[in-house]
Amino acid sequence: MDQKNIGVNLRRIREAKGLSQAQVADSAGISRVAYRNIENGISTPKVSTLQNIASGIGVKLQDLFVPIRTLNKVRFRALKRMNSRDNILNEVAQWLDDYNYLENLLNDREDYQFHDLANKLSLMHDRTNRAKYAAEQARELFGLKVKEPIRDIAGLLDSSGIKVYPLSLASDGFFGLSVSEEDGGPAIIVNVWERISVERWIFSAAHELGHLLLHFDAYDVGLSAEEPDQEVEANVFASHFLMPDAAFESEWADAYGLPFISRVLKVKRIFQVSYKTVLYRLSESLEKSIWGKFQHAYKLKTGKTLSITDEPEALSPDKFQQTPEVLRSLEPDSLSSSHFVEDRLSRLVRKAIERDEITMSRGAEILGLDLEAMREIVSSWV
């Protein structure tokens, strides 16, 4: 009996059904602590206990023994040590397997378009110029106009053969990871935790795209510490990918008459990036002290000092009461979470259900929904 597989599958199924550990424990007639130890792989349960758990959550006993594939070609770096690292990798592996299964079942796969660019970039050694060149070439391959802001980065990546997985993890030290083509990708996973702004989701997706293009030879699940030079290069890529030079310079010039704070925030809103991304770009062409000037101007205007996680002029929570789908983030004029939605997998699930290739409950499992939510989605299809 593989306790690790049982625990991973229990967690995956429980979260997909929207159940708490306490609810599963109650349905199985055991204590919450006993269930938690089973899910965490600490204790070895009796078969009868597993049968009760499986019945309680509405799955077959054998569903708890499904083997979990190990990912190897992954770039998963973080500043802080993460106890949930293995769980995340297991969840991503299951998601990738489901995604690839549907693509093969339906013979519907988007080709990855960036092999030649990645190979060309590997021959360049000037990191700053390489990152900017990569951003320019990637935009061209995506078919973006020179001054065109990116309005749907998840859809853009999907259309070019890069799978996107929005994963919610309560952590301010993990923003995203990526998986190479050799391991079922290419795929980009973004932490969409509600306390991380949508703007940060978008930047993280662009950042991981930078790693896929610039550092495809550094994908190794055994490495967990960040490499500063590569992180900086991916940040440069993301900044120039989201705000190409010509567009940024034009919008910055157009806002010439505005106060410094208002000018930064206007450009930020246009490109759907953090104010920090705008300041970073300004620091490339102006003096590095631009950061201090912004902080000083902000304090003069508001009487407050910005912390590392703050975004100025944040919308208050009451602004979202009428629209609960909007993220309660700390970004000014915050974007709706609909600005970062992965929808290709949803299309594949719909197609498979309509063709009777998979059941509605299997579709719900793949999308991480409970069956009731899946029924509501199916009934809304037109």
TrEMBL record:
Annotated Pfam families: HTH_3, Peptidase_M78
Tree of life domain: Bacteria
CDD domains listed in its UniProt record: HTH_XRE
GO terms for MF: DNA binding
Domain HTH cro/C1-type: 10-64
SUPFAM superfamilies given in the database record: lambda repressor-like DNA-binding domains
UniProt cross-references to SMART domains, sorted A to Z: HTH_XRE
Annotated family: Belongs to the short-chain fatty acyl-CoA assimilation regulator (ScfR) family.
UniProt-recorded name of the protein: HTH cro/C1-type domain-containing protein
Organism: Desulfosporosinus metallidurans
